[in-house]
Amino acid sequence: MSKKDFIHINDLTADQIHEIFDKAKWIKSKFKNREHYKPFDGMSLAMIFAKPSARTRVSFETGYYRLGGHALYLGPNDIGIGKRESVADVARVLSRFNDMIMARLFDHNHILELAKHATVPVVNGLTDHNHPCQIMADAFTIIEHLGSIENKSIAYVGDGNNIVHSWLYLSMMIPIKFTVVCPEGYKPDMELVKKAKSTGISDINISHDPYDGVKGADIIYTDVWASMGQKEEAEERRKIFDPYQVNDKMISATGQKTLFMHCLPAERGVEVTDNVCDADYSIIFDQAENRMHAQNAIMLYLTGN
Question: Sheet of 259-262: strands edge to edge?
């Protein structure tokens, strides 16, 4: 049987996606009840971090440990992936030592090459192109709060980045209404938008009006305006994105009860105000917690547990 990897959300079927959501609910309940469940006993996870992240490291390392396994952190100085050593060789060597590989990388081609040459399952912990673990956790969080993800209206406000791309991949498998609310010149990959629209599964829109774009939204979602690797653009982006700050006025513009989401870390007072982050409709910390449960469910799925 060929190994399974988790690189893009639409590598899965809709049924498999829901199977992972069900598994996330199940494993979260086990953890909350402190039930003993150690399917990864005696196993190891190699975690490659070309791009550092506290949340990704803690959620994967803690989650894998609580499932009985050992997670090994490999930082930028431990593995110069694609520089000091070829991606293919890294994949082959780590596969000899470990039962699974998670990688958080800059170059999306590196995760594709890693999966191609590894003989163990590979999980995409983030690339500049997409962030599938985050959106699986986000969708699971929406299900917890609204009962389902199907046909929910999600307005993403900000840069058309890797978070947006992952929502677009999800929209190819599960029907949602997804609106990207962004300034001109900061759209997501338009070929991917075209591909998502062509499936006919979801209602995909791009709006440049920050208030009209969020009307009727069940969820307003945002992220930092300048991601890692774009910090030299931060001041320029602040001026361009200023009308797109998620604040009380924007939340009110939806015209209905709306939840707020952010993948964190947030630059409070920049892309979102403190009032919104700390409001009772903010579910950002549920999202953060659910990263671990969704990722555990993904790893359990990949290993047949």
Answer: 203-207, 177-181, 153-157, 219-222, 259-262
CATH code given to domain 132-287: 3.40.50.1370
pLDDT in tens, 137-163: 999 999 999 999 999 999 999 999 999
Give the residue-averaged pLDDT of 24-51.
97
Of 73, 11, 132, give the one whose Cα is nearest residue 3. 11
Determine whether 263 is an active site residue: yes
Q: Which residues pair with 70 in a beta bridge?
A: 44
| Candidates 3.50.50.60, 3.40.50.740, 3.40.50.1370, 3.40.190.290; CATH matching 9-131+291-302 | 3.40.50.1370
Nearest to 221 by CA among 167, 185, 270, 174: 167
Given 133, 182, 263, 277, which residue is catalytic? 263
Distance CA(174)–CA(20), nearest Å, equals 14
